């Protein structure tokens, strides 16, 4: 069983579905982001990595690929790296103001 997490925006019903995160450092940063910005984190269990990849593929093709600003996977991977960097920056700011979260 593979645990995956994503941010949910309950106050933004028109926001697209977020992709699922499964990488441990990214999950920690995702949770920190949610706490900092008062967001929710959704958890879902996937039976296999392939099932998780298929769900992320479905989300990508439904919400992100049709938009003209998005291109296939190489662009998505670059965006994801930038997004993770932003999440790390938010964590640093949070820790600077509130101390390290254990």
Reconstruct the topology from this structure.
Blueprint: E1 2-8, H1 24-36, E2 40-46, H2 49-64, H3 73-98
Antiparallel strand pairs: 1-2
Brief digest:
The protein is α+β, with helices and mostly antiparallel strands. The chain is built from three helices and two strands, in the order E-H-E-H-H. Strands 1-2 form a two-stranded antiparallel sheet.
What would you note in describing this structure?
The chain has 102 residues and is an alpha+beta fold. The protein has one domain. The chain has helices spanning 24-36, 49-64, 73-98, and strands at 2-8, 40-46. The chain has a two-stranded antiparallel sheet with strand order 1-2. Helix 1 (24-36) packs across helix 3. The relative contact order is 0.18.
Provide keyphrases for this structure:
single chain, 2 strands, alpha+beta
Mean of the pLDDT scores?
A: 84
Rg (C-alpha, Å): 14 Å
Helix content: 40-55%
Cα shape: globular
**Number of DSSP helical runs:** 3
Got a strand count? 2
């Amino acid at each position: 069983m593979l645990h995956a997490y994503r941010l949910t925006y309950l106050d933004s019903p028109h926001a697209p579905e977020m992709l699922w995160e499964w990488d441990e450092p990214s999950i920690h940063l995702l949770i920190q982001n949610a706490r900092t910005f008062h967001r929710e984190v959704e958890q879902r269990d996937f039976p296999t990595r392939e099932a998780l990849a298929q769900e992320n593929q479905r989300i990508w093709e439904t919400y992100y690929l049709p938009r003209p600003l998005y291109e296939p996977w190489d662009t998505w991977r670059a965006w994801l790296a930038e997004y993770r960097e932003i999440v790390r920056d938010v964590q640093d700011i949070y820790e600077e103001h509130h101390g390290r979260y254990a």
